[in-house]
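Here we describe the complex-level prediction in full. Unlike the single-chain runs in Section 2.1, the two entities below were treated as one system.
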Amino acid sequence: MQNKFKICALVAALASATSALAAGEASNVIFFLGDGMGPTTITASRIYKYGEAGALNMEALKRTARIKTYSKDAQTTDSAPSMAAYMTGVKMNNEVLSMSADTSAYNGTTPYVSGANSTCPATGNGTAVSTLLELSKAAGKAVGAVTTTRITHATPAATYAHICHRDGENDIAAQVVPGSGKFNSALGSGVDVLLGGGSKFFIPTTTTGGKRTDGQDLTALLKTAGYTYVNTGTAFNSINPATTSKLVGLFNLDHLNYELDRVKNSVDEPSLADMTEKAIKILSKNSKGYFLMVEGGRIDHALHGTNAKRALEDTIAFDDAIKRALSLADLKNTLIVVTADHDHTMTINGYSHKGNPILGKVTDITQTTVQGKRVLAKAADSLPYTALVFGNGGGPRKATRDDLTSVDTAADDYLQEVGVVLGSAGSETHGGGDVMLMSTGAGNATFKGTMVNTKVFGLVKSALGL
Amino acid sequence: MNMSNNPLPRLGGLLAAAFCSLAAAAPAPDVNLLVEHEITEKTSDGVTRQLHYAERVYRRAGLVWIERVLPPGAHDAAEHAHGDHEHKHLDLAAAAKLITLDADKLARIKLVNTHDKVVINVPSAEYGNVGFDGSWENAVHLLDPKQLKTMQPIAGKAQNYQLKRADTTVRVAWDAAGEFPRQVESGNASGTRHKLMRVRQTSAPATTPWTTLQGYAQKEYSDYLD
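The structure predicted for the assembly as a whole is:
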């Protein structure tokens, strides 16, 4: 009995020591979220940019874990509860953002939203739960959110807003703006850096493209609250982070352009890497540290459209932002986490020879080797097929397959073939498989094994000593 | 029409640039068309698949309206089949395409859902996902007339053209007055793939649908994405 007590005490002491070792190691956290960036997208992006034997920057992170992403009510999650699980540690229903588990996004079959306005009841439908960003702010740290989507979209919104249905983006915008009347008081003096798109939810309908039906101009309120506000890449570039402490940049009425189009058309929007750098430089001036969320948000949108090329280009842009952060952050006091909120249905087909373009058609490796030239593999209908395909997808699908022999499947607008045809454009679904989580820097030792997504919240919170 | 089913986009696209100067100078006349598609595919497992569908195309100066011919009540049935908690959906078959030519001579497309009374703006990066190739000429004429210059006239048949390339043969019967193809037929040599598009003029709609969009909600393509 005495021995058993000694063993128990020893185990408890060890557990305590481990906890003490992890807790509070990190002053800063940079949480990278590749929306929809499942394992296949990571592999395909690696091959696309660096070849089969190459490596993405995110692969340089020291630890890798596997994350289970199901939501409270769905086998396959949407982006709202999955990001909210990371940010709050609570499993919630699809469409719900950073609310308690009992929150419903629907009144029966009717969503709690009218246009972009929330119709969530004020009481009786769940309560707000604290986010990592709010906890960091309460601890005196600087906080920020950077994205390529609308800043009011599900992933960034999960860091700073609480709402029963993600589509109430007018209300989500109001929650992040001091003086709006709906400001989220848990944000204290406000989110220090907000960069992305979605200005339409910040300006009234009386302004071109505006969606606010309450007549408010939230950009004006932001300026009143002491923010520097910019809406072009050019103006963003002129911002001096050394003299700026509160910055909002909304560079598009809607989402920012896909990276492919941003570069090809020289759109006056900043890159995700540049936004990440400026955010880090502003937030890191806080002596108590910072919490920054960076989202590669349009990976998901290109995948919904079964447009693999734009998805891979956006993944590379996301990876370049990670590279930039790694070059700026002091890993002795900064934890960097890279993960995804869910998978998609894209997969890599066939037995192409090494070196075959990942956006290309599958090759017959035997004939390619024997003949010394690229020989396409054929499906049962005697037609070639691409290496990347999707389990399902919408858009203008044909009842018969095209002969792809002379089709450039690496063209910007090429849409990959799908297994199950869905009628709705852009309706390829999320995948329900696990995603990867990579981490490095202060407090990363506990980010290992197979975890449910809610556990990540506790690990980040512990690493920050919150 | 569904631009992705255009029978000649790649054959003609390669050579179209060389014939820019041959593009028609005058605006194409107003027409009201019924476009019927038949696609047949025979596979090596002995299965023959046949596909039929039709679209109405209304062409006016600077504007083309394209809508799928749907069976009565089809949209209601499809909508209800999605279930109660569908996040959001954009039913392409039920949405008409409104293609216009803007001031900088670029074709722009909007989707119009008359059932839900919604107009949806589509950015150019998403054109592929709504079945639009971005070509104004293809939209106005169903087939860019410049592509006829890349084809061989068929002897004894005025305004009939043929193009043979690799395994594929394409034949076009052109309506010079209306500036649209009466028929486009393509197929491979072994006969396993065959496409036929037949076009005929019909009466104008009692009310032109693009003039009844006042009060429609304005949405973005991205509103339908997760």
